Protein: Sodium:solute symporter
Organism: Candidatus Infernicultor aquiphilus
Amino acid sequence: GMVGGLGLFLYGMQLLSEGLQKSTGDKLPKILELLTNKPIIGVATGTLITSIIQSSSATSVITIGLVNAGLLSLKQAISVIIGANIGTTITAQIVSFRLEKYALPAIGIGFIFNFLSKRRSYKYFGQILLGFGILFLGISIISDTAKPLRNYTPFLKLIENMSNNPLLGIITALIFTAIIQSSSATTALIIAMSIQGIIGIEAAIPLILGANIGTCFTAVIASIGSSITGKRVALSHLFFNIGGVVLFLFFLNKFTYLVSLTSSSIPRQIANAHTLFNVFNAIILLPFINLFVRFIVKILPGEEIVLKKGPIYLNKDIVNTPSIALGQAIKELVRMGEIVESMLSDVMISFIQNDINILKNLYLKEGVVNTLEKEITKYLVLIAQESLSIEQSEILKDLMNITNNIERVGDISEDLAELAEEKINEKLPFSEKALDELKFMFTKVESSFNISISALKNRNIDLAREVALKEDEIDKIEKGLRDSHINRLNQGICYPESGVIYLDVISNLERIGDHANNICLMVIDELSKN
């Protein structure tokens, strides 16, 4: 019964979290990017977002994804994680208010909205309500199932040992939370047992402290295969919580006494202990966050790459000097092109190595590329309003077209990422020959695009002409691969679903070759007039 109740609780949490995330759309990463400039604001942002989506794990994964894409620095990410620790305690606060009697009505109403409504917003509301109801139904089942433990001597002896030996409680909760990857579920289980009078605040607090360390393993798992900064975020989360627990062990009796003053209800005391631990931990670390960041960097050395979402080189104060302003626009275009280069590299690695984690970074980079395309276009429009020479007008027109071509390659990279995701998720088989063919074409197209950006950057007409020559070669490769693949399909030696993906990939790669050629034709056009 306890296992079933815990399963319902976790499933309810998942439904609630998914419903809240769907209702907020793609706003969460944007909010995190915008509101993390100062540590205190980062903490507030992490707290708010985790309170809304009811999942510190989701906040951690989003944060590590933004870090991997270079959109957040280590300092910003640590402040968000600190806030997520505080935000996740809201679940325990809700559970401690004993709302089990509303579980079944919430499930019934949530079902009606989620399954019968046609409007998306109502469906999400229904999913949130359904998750809320299932969560409290799980708590009710856990609590009822725990009743016999009140008279089970071995279990009561274990609880007594945890009261006398806090380290035992910490280790027990740490292992349990690491396995189920939810400190909220561990806290809910503790509260459910306290409802039955099985566990007191003295035994509960060490379990709460252990749960706070155990929840770090979600971030550790999410950081596998991530950038150096992503790994640092996970490590800082672990060190931050372990440090807090070690510190609190010295003042455990005083902390227990303080928590006992917050409420006469044991479930409320447990929830308050969870919140106070994370709030105090944040207050202690924030003044020393720069030292903490340096400490983490020393343990995991390496270069941190931070990718600014907005433009770096576009200065509106110089648009009245078109020659300089156009030069700055070219610099920003090159930067945009280099981000797209990294997207192409990411999608090739993901497709060949079946690594889906890389794609999270690619989708974030696509957002950066779209932002830059809009900003560069707006900047060029401002320049166009100035008095331009005929030559400058031609250059501006070419830059407009180059901006569009680079952005389209970013879009195609995203399309390729979706194909890679389908291949990985559906476990579609690809022969070594097919993968070698795709890798060969990927390499040719990537080289062509990279040279086009280099030609733009260095104002090199010879490089631009080199890409123009490669265009015919890429077209021939695409046609040859398509013909040989269709032959394999006709002979029945190729899996049909894999074949569709294969043909879509080579078609998209050929389009990237076209855009690389377009960029170079404009570079040639511009430079030949000088």
